[in-house]
Amino acid sequence: MSSTSSNENATSPLDWLEGAFIVINENLALFPASEYSKVADLVKKYLVHNQKTPENLFNYLDNKSSKRSIDYILFGFCSEHGIGTVPNFTKAFLEFQKAANSKDSLGQFFLGHCYEKGIGTSQDQEKAFELYSKAAEAGDTTAQRSFGNCYFYGWGTKKNYEKAFELYSKAAEAGNTLGQYNLAICYANGWGTKKNDEKAFDLYSKAAEVGNTTAQRSFGNCYFYGWGTKKNHEKAFELYSNS
User: Fold this and answer.
1) Chain centroid to CA 140: how far?
2) pLDDT 10s per residue in the chain (243 long)?
3) Are 108 and 134 within 8 A, CB to CB?
4) Are 102 and 67 in contact (CB under 8 A)?
5) Nearest to 16 by CA among 66, 65, 71, 62
6) What distance in Å separates the CA atoms of residue 242 and residue 121, rounded to the nearest whole number?
7) Upper half-sphere CA count for residue 90 (Cβ side, 13 Å)
8) 185-to-102, 170, 224 alpha-carbon distances in Å
9) What is the DSSP string of 18-42?
10) What's the pTM value of the predicted model, to 2 decimals?
11) Which residue from 176, 128, 168 is spatially nearest to 152, judged by alpha carbons?
12) Cα–Cα distances in angstroms (integers) from residue 191 to residues 32, 152, 174, 195, in the given order
């Protein structure tokens, strides 16, 4: 479930900075916001692999005079999750804001995340909705999925299952694992589309295959109850055990 494929030994600050950024960007599609601490752990693992410490990363960014948008995002992520420093939510918010102001779609996503959760600022679901919209329009799949959540749950806008389904579909088609899981839920329950257990089964399978534990449980339920496939309690047991 990690971006260890990008863990080639990096020989320059630019190499390992971009490597750490890739770890974050790739794993946002696998973990919901409540589990971003796992993404932070993967960043630390990447640094160790490249004979660096979390403090090396934070201090390098802190002392870097000319920052790019990915530097702001890395610095914000380190500040939010205490990578090489103590957590500082206000600092995280300000760094993500700098990236967003440069029209970086991932920076817009993270700033929207701060507004949605009230990280380093007052919670403001309308601002989160606006920022997710901008990032989603630019093609960021994590933002597309989060923008879909806004419509699904009525965060910063009115509930609209059809719009949520459309956005989950975009994220899923681009290979976003959480988007695939959310789209499967829509098909399984007939939210924003016609109920289709076979399509839900297929999407749960794709998300489960890359290690999404929530999808593995739902995929197991398909086998246990015979949703979109024949009942197979042995297969269900196997998937439940993995999750």
Assistant:
1) 10
2) 444 444 445 556 668 999 999 999 999 999 999 999 999 999 999 999 999 999 999 999 999 999 999 999 999 999 999 999 999 999 999 999 999 999 999 999 999 999 999 999 999 999 999 999 999 999 999 999 999 999 999 999 999 999 999 999 999 999 999 999 999 999 999 999 999 999 999 999 999 998 888 899 999 999 999 999 999 999 999 999 987
3) yes
4) no
5) 71
6) 38
7) 0
8) 35, 15, 17
9) HHHHHHHHHHTTTS-GGGHHHHHHH
10) 0.90
11) 168
12) 21, 9, 21, 7
Indicate the residue type of 102.
Answer: S
Residue located via tokens 């694992």: 177
- Report residue 40 as tokens: 């932070």
Q: Which two tokens stand for residue 88?
A: 């500082």
Angle between helix 177-189 and 197-209 (nearest 10): 160
